[in-house]
Write a structure and sequence with these properties.
442 residues; five-stranded antiparallel sheet; alpha+beta; single chain; 20 strands; four-stranded antiparallel sheet
Amino acid sequence: MNRYAWWKYLIIAAALFVGFVYTLPNFFGEAPAVQLSSGKATVKLDAGAVSTVESALKAAGITADFVEFDNGSVKARFADTDTQLKARDVIRRAFNPDPADEHYIVALNLLSRSPHWLRALNAHPMYLGLDLRGGVHFLMQVDMKAALTQKVESLSSDIRTQLRDKDIRHGGIRREGDTIQIRFRDEATRTQAQRLVGNLADVDWVPGTDAGDLTLVGSLKPASMRTIQEQALKQNITTLHNRINELGVAEPVIQQQGLDRVVVQLPGVQDTARAKDIIGRTATLEVRMVDDSAEAQAALAGGSVPFGTERFMERGGVPIIVKRQVVLAGENLTDAQPGFDENHEAAVHLTLDSRGARIFKDVTRENINKRMAILLFEKGKGEVVTAPVIRGEIGGGRVQISGRMSTEEAADTALLLRAGSLAAPMEIIEERTIGPSLGAEN
């Protein structure tokens, strides 16, 4: 006679069955594959790339087990390594016709041999780390002092602008370490300035004297310092994720260690130099005016570009003529967030520092109904992220980019502008190349 009710045995059997099904992928092993991913921040892959890959492979007489779009990249699995190598060359020629200007990364990879019905159930094999698969390990140190210095420099510029706008005279503003010192000649002016700069929530102000001059000394609040450091670390981790996607690593490990360190583990990558090159790469942002003159239009039709201009490509491969003069640089951009405009259409909201706000106000006032291009430079080559039309003077350091943009495109553009470069410098303090010794023994 059973001690327990029959339905309890049924629950145990069902749990064992489900567990057995989801362990099956571990028994099928791995097969050679080719992974296609974006090689530039302004280039994005979508599900439509699957048909392009399939057509290229079919034209070359290569048969793939399957081709699928997964997590922003296209993956094709093959029966053997010879077919894998041939497929890599075919896909590379199809997506990178100019070897000197590669828009996509075509990398060799390994995928599970699990059948389609298991993958449809989201049954995946266990993730293998460096010990079992081999790869490279980096420990990176974030220069938090540089992040704080950059914030203090930005605050100094903002304060200088505020005092000038309110016509409050001072004897100079200078940064000393992580503090800001403002000099005054009389008590009345110092009191007036203290009321103005006291609105800065991130800074504590203390009156004092120095060499006979009255001073205001501002220092970052401890809570603000922690916030700045945390944001710098998060932005660096986001930027590292964007860059490491170029390596074609299926499951990289990028995680915070302590208050100022980041661990980067790249399973399956043995080329340390290539990994260091991508991790250490910088992206720069520039804002320039678009040249819509008759000479520029002729250049778009095939003529030579006018003096003082350059030809770039917009998203979608449309050429555009942009003036060489840089209106604003990425250092003037403090934040970029997706949102909506007054017509409830997707938009990107930018925040500029005081210098950038002043320049942007003057430029937009003088160039109404003209186009302004926002360019992102990577590896020495620039591409136009967006080129909106200026509808009116824009002041206050708040800028909105909108027009023919989906919600997803707005989020992507904001990410590019916000995380195109590191928020604080990082250096590699430890690097190791690890072989799959434990995996080979087992």
